[in-house]
Amino acid sequence: MRYLCLVYGDEATLDAMPQHEIDALIDEVLANNEELQASGQLILAEALDHVAAATTVRVRNGRLSATDGPFAETNEQLGGFVLIEARDLNEATQIAVRIPSARIGSIEVRPVIDLLHGCRVDARRAGVGSGADRCHPRARRARRLPPGARCTSRPPPTAGANGRRAPPTSVPSN
């Protein structure tokens, strides 16, 4: 299952760090990404520019509103993300604690909803009980599932040239 590790930190703390500490942190992040890549658990990892470079877009009653800056004022800002493959939330959490940025910020770990194949985990039950899947009505019709049946099938992973699971097609590549 895919999990998104959202990396949060205080930009003021990062801005106050000496350059050699920033360089060391970047080296640690890149080394961690290489380890995750070698294990087949890394799908994609990216850092984000400062929130001052952000634009927040809203559409209300058919009208567009674009605002410079982040959506809300917070102590920590979203600084990047790491999209991983893990067996379960426990393994995803164990991967997240190895992300070096966790020492100066926080990592939010969230399951990725598989909209591409029409299934999603019932968030109210994730991690509790069976974590049963629900199907989007189109996927239910395509799979000819009777009402009340659980969508437990997942499409088979596609193998890349190296025999490992290829990144999902819904993730844009640069």
CATH homologous superfamily name of the largest domain?
Dimeric alpha+beta barrel
Number of helices: 4
Series of H and E elements: EHHEEEEHEEEH
What is the CATH topology assignment of the largest domain? Alpha-Beta Plaits
Radius of gyration: 19 Å
Strand tally is 8
- Report the mean per-residue pLDDT as an integer: 77
* Poorly predicted regions: 120-133, 152-174
| Major sheet characteristics | 4 strands, antiparallel
Identify the overall geometry: flat
Strand order of the largest sheet: 2-5-1-6
Can you tell me the CATH class of the largest domain? Alpha Beta
Structure, explained:
There is one protein chain. By secondary structure, this protein is α+β, with helices and mostly antiparallel strands. The chain has 4 helices and 8 strands. It has helices spanning 11-16, 19-39, 89-96, 137-143; strands at 2-9, 42-47, 55-60, 63-68, 77-85, 105-111, 119-121, 133-135. Strands 2-5-1-6 form a 4-stranded antiparallel β-sheet. Strands 3-4 form a two-stranded antiparallel ribbon. It starts with a strand and ends in a 31-residue tail after the last helix.
Summarize the structure.
This protein is an alpha+beta fold and 174 residues long.
How are the secondary structure elements laid out?
Elements: E1 2-9, H1 11-16, H2 19-39, E2 42-47, E3 55-60, E4 63-68, E5 77-85, H3 89-96, E6 105-111, E7 119-121, E8 133-135, H4 137-143
Antiparallel strand pairs: 1-5, 1-6, 2-5, 3-4, 7-8
Question: What attributes characterize this protein structure?
Answer:
174 residues; alpha+beta; Alpha-Beta Plaits; 2 domains; four-stranded antiparallel beta sheet; two-stranded antiparallel ribbon; 4 helices; 8 strands; disordered C terminus
